[in-house]
Amino acid sequence: MNRHILHVVTNTAHFGNSAHPTGLWLSELTHAWDVFAASGHEQRIVSPKGGRVPLDPRALKWPMRDASTKAWLADPAKMALLSSTPTPADINPGDYDAIYFTGGHGVMWDFPGNEGLQAITRALWEKGGVVSAVCHGYCGLLNTRLADGSFLVRGRKITGFSWTEERLAGVAREIPYNVEAQMKARGAFYKKALLPFMSHVVTDGRLVTGQNPFSARATARKVVALLNGA
């Protein structure tokens, strides 16, 4: 059975310092897209504000510029999907079986406070759908509350880009908050790999999260397994 998956991407093009560009970490979208497409699932992309999606220039260089990202960049139809995205208000949560939050540092600014994304996530979760995120994408789950007022992540195992990885990436002083610490403050049980920048996926029921860009394919495969009833 074909299922419908909603990808969430950022509109933020730079850090608080406008001289430091950021945006979607493209491989986190393309790697998952390839896995979902191979399974025959329908896919759509949404962003907090709609419209154009900037690409993080660091993700367009070796080793992140792999066959998957090159194929996307060379495909006008795929690139058009990132030039004009719908807003959360354009999305009916009832049409989707899973949501997948992509990363790139830009999401730290425009994912957590977006009530439209929170409403979609809550509705999808409460109807039995799969909620997933990779890398900084878990910023989109920080403030999502369920109908009873509790945080969706409270009491659940989760992973995402770690504070250690932020420091190793050299951006710890430029980002607006420590998302690992914020997740723990909301009652989530944060888990990470023994070594930074290694593929690592954590599954807690219908919640699937990957730690970093190298976790995107494994995260998507787990989402597919859940959608297939595995």
Q: Which fold name corresponds to the CATH topology?
A: Rossmann fold
Q: Can you say what the CATH homologous superfamily is?
A: Class I glutamine amidotransferase (GATase) domain
Q: Unreliable runs, pLDDT <50, ≥5 residues?
A: none
Strand content: 5-15%
CATH-derived architecture: 3-Layer(aba) Sandwich
Averaged pLDDT: 97
Enzyme class: lyase
Family: Belongs to the peptidase C56 family. HSP31-like subfamily.
Keywords: Lyase, Stress response
Protein name: Molecular chaperone Hsp31 and glyoxalase 3
Structural overview:
By secondary structure, this protein is an alpha/beta fold. The chain has one domain (4-227): Rossmann fold. The chain has helices at 26-38, 67-73, 76-81, 107-110, 115-126, 163-168, 179-185, 216-227, and strands at residues 4-8, 42-46, 98-101, 130-134, 157-158, 189-190, 201-204, 207-210. Strands 2-1-3-4-8-7 form a 6-stranded mixed β-sheet. A hairpin with a 2-residue loop joins β7 and β8. α1 (26-38) packs parallel to α8 (216-227). The protein is globular, with a radius of gyration of 16 Å. Residues 27-225 form the DJ-1/PfpI domain.
Please sum up the structure shown:
With 230 residues, the protein is of the alpha/beta class.
Layout of secondary structure:
Layout: E1 4-8, H1 26-38, E2 42-46, H2 67-73, H3 76-81, E3 98-101, H4 107-110, H5 115-126, E4 130-134, E5 157-158, H6 163-168, H7 179-185, E6 189-190, E7 201-204, E8 207-210, H8 216-227
Parallel strand pairs: 1-2, 1-3, 3-4, 4-8, 5-6
Antiparallel strand pairs: 7-8
Helix pairs in contact: 1-8
Keywords: Lyase, Stress response
Enzyme class: lyase
GO biological process, one term: methylglyoxal catabolic process to D-lactate via S-lactoyl-glutathione
